[in-house]
Design a protein that fits this description.
It is a single chain. The protein is an all-alpha fold and 132 residues long. The chain has one domain (2-131): Membrane associated eicosanoid/glutathione metabolism-like domain (Four Helix Bundle (Hemerythrin (Met), subunit A)). It contains six helices and no strands. It is elongated, with a radius of gyration of 18 Å.
């Protein structure tokens, strides 16, 4: 779980590094950018990719955080869950790397499906435990 949190922290640093120059350049004239989507068209492609990826780290990974906390609190941690959690982390790192570099959607979706598969497998494992 901390690895995904650290990834979010790293992406925040990238986000700040890509936005601060634009903010400094337009300081005093930022009222037109009240919402992040208003600023987006003014950002270069790399900065837009970083912004999108940062936002993505607050979508599916929030389920991961809740799930691993649940598994830990229920004392269901086992080798399978640990491997699936690390596989989830690896696929999220790959997803981020693809999105902030080439942003090749065909490859990015494979990483997204991989992370989702890890997540769903962990959920199904817990459902089966609950039903038994």
């Amino acid at each position: 779980m901390f690895a995904v949190i650290a990834l979010s922290g790293l992406l925040f640093l990238f986000l700040a590094a890509t936005r601060i120059p634009l903010i400094i350049k337009n300081f005093g004239r930022l009222q037109h950018s009240k919402h992040s989507e208003d600023l987006r068209p003014r950002l270069p492609p790399f900065a837009r990719n970083v912004t999108d990826n940062y936002n993505h780290l607050f979508e599916q990974p929030t389920v991961f955080y809740a799930l691993v906390t649940y598994i830990y609190l229920m004392q269901h941690v086992d080798t399978v869950h640990v491997y699936l959690a690390w596989a989830y982390v690896a696929t999220r790192v790959i997803h981020s790397a693809i999105q902030i570099t080439s942003n090749n959607v065909s490859y990015r979706v494979l990483a997204f499906i991989g992370s989702g598969t890890c997540l769903i497998t962990m959920i199904v494992k817990e459902v089966l435990f609950f039903l038994s």
